[in-house]
Amino acid sequence: MTRSGMVEGEYGKRKRRWSVPSTTRYASGSPSPWPGGTILHIKTEATERHTLAVIVDNEPGILARIAGLFTARGYNIESLTVSEITADKGVSRITIVTSASPPVMEQIIAQLDRLVPVHKVTDLTALGAHVERELALVKVKGTGDHRIEALRLAEVYRARVVDATIGSFVFEVTGTIEKIDKFVELMGEVGLVEVARTGIVAIARGREAA
């Protein structure tokens, strides 16, 4: 190797050896692995949880199309519920809970709105005050003190017994996600066996339809 940083190669030709100046740094200040270069820092926007109400024609395949839209674009569905809302069973309401940055949320709403069977998409979170509820069935087993404690906790959380045997209970509890999460967590200390949850349903406050 010569003083100039060159390496003598085959047939006397000189080849430049790759080196990294010790002064080269990332934009953040850490050493860069590329000679003389810097890296781009991609700014990630904070995600927010949103509850969407989607009114659709009740036709075969519409739920799969909506779920496929989320899956194909990498959007996550945290909760999804669907039910008929008209007497003739021709229209359904789908409630979707998802988390995304504001620009991505705008894309989700726009893409949902473009689907032909969709009548209306409402972002209840952006709209303002609204009511959210979920129902859960919680099975708990136990005898003696554990059985007594399970009943005591159920009373505090206003959960009602919908099935009972000598060694188990099934509780029905409704409320916010936080309430149900906490109830399930506490039941884990006294003999939780199984949980079934409906997912979120939501509606806007006030006199007008969302």
User: What order do the helices and strands follow?
Assistant: EEEHEEHEHEHEEHEE
User: Distance N terminus to C terminus?
Assistant: 76 Å
Helix content: 10-25%
Give unreliable regions as ranges: 2-30
State the shape. elongated
| Biggest sheet details | 5 strands, antiparallel
SS summary, helix count:
5
| Integer-rounded radius of gyration | 29 Å
**Which structural class is indicated by helix and strand composition?**
alpha+beta
List the helices and strands and how they pair.
Blueprint: E1 6-8, E2 14-16, E3 48-57, H1 62-72, E4 77-84, E5 91-100, H2 102-114, E6 118-123, H3 124-127, E7 130-141, H4 145-156, E8 160-164, E9 168-175, H5 177-187, E10 192-197, E11 201-204
Antiparallel strand pairs: 1-2, 3-5, 3-6, 4-5, 7-9, 7-10, 7-11, 8-9
How would you characterize the overall build of this protein?
With 210 residues, the protein is α+β, with helices and mostly antiparallel strands. It has 2 domains: 48-128, Alpha-Beta Plaits, CATH 3.30.70; 131-204, ACT-like. Chain A, domain 2 (Alpha-Beta Plaits), CATH 3.30.70. Helix content is 24%, strand content 36%. It contains 5 helices and 11 strands. It has helices spanning 62-72, 102-114, 124-127, 145-156, 177-187; strands at 6-8, 14-16, 48-57, 77-84, 91-100, 118-123, 130-141, 160-164, 168-175, 192-197, 201-204. The strands form 3 sheets. Strands 7, 8, 9, 10 and 11 form a 5-stranded antiparallel beta sheet that branches. The longest helix is centred in the middle third of the chain and has 13 residues, at 102-114. The protein is elongated, with a radius of gyration of 29 Å.
